[in-house]
Specification:
disordered N terminus; about 550 residues; 25 strands; alpha/beta; seven-stranded mixed beta sheet; globular; single chain
């Protein structure tokens, strides 16, 4: 939430900022939203972030931001003007030349301070996520935590960026160092307003790069707090710039030659466009796309553990995460019967406001998402699926939420490939159940799917687990773990149709993506320091 502050009231403004006024965040570590905005409240204006300041866009085009639980307009976000987009890239380019000269120890110190401030503002960022995105507060805190863990891992930069060297011949040494690329464009999705920006920003900072970041126009609030904290941590003006908007903003990031690499998380259509266009223009691109994650349950699994795990993984975050379990694969008749108990347990989950601590899942992001999910359920039912648990009949107890985008946990059985519930990424709390006779059929089903983000197996058999991990074709594999997202010392390793690019987010791959190697070969003769070397055009042949 923001309040308007005139430029004349800001004595410390840098003269390089061309905008007419600044905006300041109306929240703090101890003061942030704890409930939904009252009807009739004037929408607040989302700032941009330029040269270390939160500034008001001069745009004539502003998009409404709705609270998903009420559909009330709570904020407005600008379509950054062409000049503002140009200024952001120019600012990042200019800052790069000085920022890359900072010692790694100095950048590490700023990274430590950034982590400290993220922890201090943990609940503040989560509250903004609840308000704009609709998650429960507990889930929003988890969103922040997973980004915070990447920021903590980035503090290991002195080790991650340590050079390697070898004496390749007498008195001759080759050293390889990794250097920053320059300006990095980061295009972020609506479903993880804090985590995804933090997948990249801490590593961008410590590797000596600069950034132009575009948060989702649906949920920009968390990114704006993160920008404010980066500046407070000591990230110099221009190193981070935040712009807003839709196609024009994305195309500027793609087409500007000063931007050397692009990170993207989002849907298939946008991701394929960004990857194709970005790489055709010579940029590095890493793009996480859609997913269809399966959970296979074998008859020997711990039933209670399985039921708790599958419901949390399928319906948490209202199914709006790329690692949600959206397909349950039951093997044999025994596990097929467990689905009734899964449904009974799911029916107990409470749907409601993210600010209500008793809620297990909140609303979908917008009415269009609710309509799409409902249509997929209906079409799959017509194709032969059975609606075992129907969340379409959800009615809010409080009239305040009557217009919210709520869909209760929904379970479809008798689902088969070819049905929309199986083929499409629903991004909603909808679980499709497919029954197969054998473990081999289950593995083949998963491997035939075009997506490869994540998969899980529930079993008590070590032999089955070993067979599974060796033969399954997905990038992130869990055994008795429903959402196997690795911690930041590894990387987010989705594959197949879920990822485009050569190097994944964070971990060693993330550092490699954001840097380029340079080798330096030096020859300093030590055998006779008094000898005057004669000029020679021959290649040295010392052994």
């Amino acid at each position: 939430m923001l309040r308007f502050v005139s430029k004349s009231a800001q004595n410390g403004l840098r003269r390089s900022v061309r905008y007419a006024s600044t905006l300041t965040l109306n929240s703090s570590p101890l003061s942030y939203p704890t409930n939904h905005v009252e009807p009739g409240t004037e929408p607040y204006l989302t700032p941009s972030f330029h040269n270390g300041q939160l500034v008001k866009s001069e745009s004539k085009t502003w998009f409404d931001i709705h609270d998903p639980a009420t559909n009330q307009v709570i904020s407005k976000v600008p379509q950054s003007t062409a000049q503002e987009l140009e200024d952001a890239v120019a600012s990042a380019e200019k800052a790069f030349h000085s920022w890359k000269q900072y010692s790694i120890i100095k950048r590490q110190g700023i990274a430590f301070k950034f982590v400290e401030l993220l922890k201090k503002n943990h609940d503040r960022i989560a509250a903004m996520i609840v308000l704009e995105q609709g998650k429960t507060f507990a889930d929003a805190r988890g969103d922040v935590l997973r980004g915070l863990q990447v920021a903590e891992a980035a503090c290991n930069a002195p080790n991650d960026l340590m050079a390697s060297s070898l004496e390749v011949a007498t008195d001759m040494e080759t050293k390889m160092v990794r250097e920053p690329l320059g300006v990095v464009g980061s295009i972020c999705p609506f479903n993880f307003p804090a985590m995804v920006p933090l997948w990249s920003l801490p590593l961008i900072f410590v590797t000596g790069n600069t950034c132009v970041l575009k948060p989702s126009e649906r949920v920009p609030g968390a990114a704006m707090i993160i920008a404010e904290l980066a500046a407070e941590a000591g990230v110099p003006p221009g190193v981070l710039n935040i712009v807003h908007g839709k196609h024009d903003t994305v195309n500027k990031i793609l087409e500007d030659p000063r931007i050397k690499a692009i990170t993207f998380v989002g849907g298939d259509k946008a991701g394929k466009y960004i990857h194709e266009k970005g790489t055709s223009l010579g940029k590095r691109v890493q793009a996480n796309l859609g997913a269809k994650n399966h959970l296979i349950v074998l008859p020997d699994a711990d039933k209670n553990h399985f039921i708790n795990a599958v419901n949390g993984a399928a319906f948490g975050a209202a199914g709006q995460r790329c690692m949600a379990i959206s397909v349950l694969v039951t093997v044999g008749e025994k596990t097929k019967k467990w689905v009734e108990e899964v449904a009974a347990d799911a029916a107990q989950l409470k749907v409601g406001s993210g600010f209500d601590s008793s809620s297990d899942l909140g609303p979908l992001i917008n009415p269009e998402s609710l309509t799409k999910a409902s249509e997929i359920i209906a079409d799959s039912e017509k194709a032969g699926a059975t609606v075992l648990l129907d969340g379409r009949n959800f009615k809010a107890a409080d009239a305040k939420f009557a217009k919210g985008n709520f869909l209760g946990p929904t379970i479809l059985t008798n689902v088969k490939p070819g049905m929309r519930a199986y083929d499409e990424e629903i991004f909603a709390p909808v679980l499709a159940v497919v029954n197969v006779d054998t473990f081999d059929e289950a593995i083949e089903l998963v491997n035939s799917n075009r997506y490869g983000n994540g998969v899980a197996l529930f079993t008590q058999s070590g032999a089955a687990a070993q067979k599974f991990t060796k033969n399954i074709a997905c990038g992130q594999v869990g055994v008795n773990v429903p959402i196997p997202v690795p911690l930041p010392m590894f990387s987010f390793t989705g594959n197949k149709g879920s990822f485009l690019g050569d190097l994944n987010f964070y971990g060693k791959a993330g550092v490699t993506f954001l840097t380029q190697p340079k080798t330096i070969t030096s020859y300093w003769k030590t055998s006779n320091v008094e000898e005057v070397l004669k000029p020679s055009t021959a290649m040295p042949i010392q052994h």
